[in-house]
Amino acid sequence: MMQFTETPPPPLHQITSFSNLPMNNNQIHRTRPWPGFPTSKALGSFGDANCMEQLLVHCANAIESNDATLAQQILWVLNNIAPPDGDSNQRLTCGFLRALIARAANSGTCKMFTAMANAHANLAINTHKFSVIELASFVDLTPWHRFGFAAANAAILEVVEGYSVIHIVDLSLTHCMQIPTLIDALANRPEGPPLVKLTVAGATEDVPPMLDLSYEELGSKLVNFARSRNVMLEFRVIPSTSSDGFSSLIDQLRVQHLVYAESGEALIVNCHMMLHYIPEETLSAIHSTNSSSYSVESSSPSYHRTMFLKALRTLNPTIVILVDEDADFTSNNLVCRLRSAFNYLWIPYDTMDTFLPRGSKQRQWYEADICWKVENVIAHEGPQRVERLEPKGRWVQRMRNANFRSIMFSEDTVSEVKHMLDEHAAGWGLKKEEEDLVLTWKGHNVVFATAWVPA
Q: Which of 1, 52, 299, 444 is exposed most, by the fewest CB atoms within 10 A?
């Protein structure tokens, strides 16, 4: 396994001690509307995940109702029972604690949060910018991303059999990290390697994991890697963003549609944990463009995601692979969103303890990315809240509504995924749900993989 070599970033959690905040001891222990508020001696009983979740819920409610006194009391408790270097539940809770502080500071509605707002700069999350080698090693640590890579690559290899030219549109959170393995496999085809055209969206959002180089530089590295495997690779970046449903990308692909359709190219659309960054609701009036698919204004929910999938269908792709995290972060209600996120994001913290030692820089990077996600889900609203995961069932319905038909992963693909999982901790598992594959951790759904063709 490739090793990380860069100097670790500053300590991840820099939570200001609440003992330094102006607080009246009588206020701290005053009887509140919910029973059993603890003294400092009784904090040990609040150490399990269920109690921590309830405290976070009560705190969120207090912040939303502008009850600064109660919110401050609960934050004091949370700060004492959820150290940033504790067990997985404590570190998870600490991430939500800092997100609630950020929300309270951002809202400016609670006057008693002035001290927290002043200290907000110290709560900044130090997300790491990876080199290509670092990121390749990073995503190799767990099946979180490798599961989707293995399922997608195996399915792609099957459908492009016999094609001399394949065009891959890679909408991936991990910056093409699955492409080298796919190139390796294509290089060994009995009929010889195809010409590979790789198109990526040059997104402008700073969403972790982040690279320390441009997509043009990344493309040069991929072209050189492919050449070393005797594969001809053409790399193209189309400036496009998820905030408008990748409209620029769709427009340019549509222009080429007749060309590649007549030449017999295979069009592969690989969506790896990226589509949930397309807004699931219309946050403002939709801009007008020259594209007929994006020129109609709409106030209906799910406009961008719906229109992206419908526009994708008009391209008549050979196959669409959709991989994403199986959770729901779309509720407009903060408490519902908090519960959903808390009951999903314990998984990466729990898995982390099985493969990364305390204090390692990889663990700092890993936890920083999770904390970024937590803060985005909890502390932000409107267009700033981009982490809007939807569960598998909702995506399946979206794809069907866009006139796609799901196809089953072959037994060879399932075997490939199982072989990959054998390289990781025993808690990881695989299950089939109809035609789809689902990665699990201790029986809980984590990531799903689906494959689609035009109906």
A: 1
Q: What is the pLDDT of residue 115?
A: 58
Q: What is the 3-state secondary structure (H, E, C) of the chain?
A: CCCCCCCCCCCCCCCCCHHHCCCCHHHHHCCCCCCCCCCHHHHHHHCCHHHHHHHHHHHHHHHHCCCHHHHHHHHHHHHHHCCCCCCHHHHHHHHHHHHHHHHHHHHCCCHHHHHHHHCHHHHCCCCCEECHHHHHHHHCCCHHHHHHHHHHHHHHHHHCCCCCEEEEEEEECCCCCCHHHHHHHHHCCCCCCCEEEEEEECCCCCCCCEECCCHHHHHHHHHHHHHHCCCCEEEEEECCCHHHCCHHHHHHHHHHHHHHHHHCCEEEEEEECCHHHCCCCCCCCCCCCCCCCCCCCCCCCCHHHHHHHHHHHHCCCCEEEEEEECCCCCCCCHHHHHHHHHHHHHHHHHHHCCCCCCCCHHHHHHHHHHHHHHHHHHHCCHHHCCCCCCCHHHHHHHHHHCCEEEECCCHHHHHHHHHHHCCCCCCEEEEEECCEEEEEECCEEEEEEEEEEEC
If pLDDT is split at 50, 70 and 90, which confidence band does 407 have? very high
Give the CA distances from residue 419 to residues 151, 429, 430, in Å, rounded to whole numbers and listed in that order.
11, 11, 11
Confidence of residue 393 (pLDDT cuts 50, 70, 90): very high
Q: Return the closest-CA partner of residue 316 out of 239, 264, 246, 247.
A: 264
Distance of alpha carbon 392 from alpha carbon 384, whole angstroms: 24
Say how many C-beta atoms besides its own lie within 10 A of residue 290's C-beta.
8
Residue 81 has pLDDT above 50, yes or no: yes
Q: HSE (CB half, 13 Å, CA atoms) of 378? A: 32
Helix axes 68-81, 49-64, angle to 10 degrees: 150
Whether 11 has a pLDDT exceeding 80, the answer reads no
pTM over 0.70: yes
Residue pair 302/280 in contact by the 8 Å Cβ criterion:
yes
Beta bridge partners of 130: 211
Alpha-carbon radius of gyration of the chain: 23
Per residue in 276-333, pLDDT (tens digit) is 999 986 444 333 333 333 333 334 444 789 999 999 999 999 999 999 999 999 999 9
Give the separation between CA 244 and CA 264, rounded to whole angstroms.
Answer: 30
Place of tokens 């799903």: 448
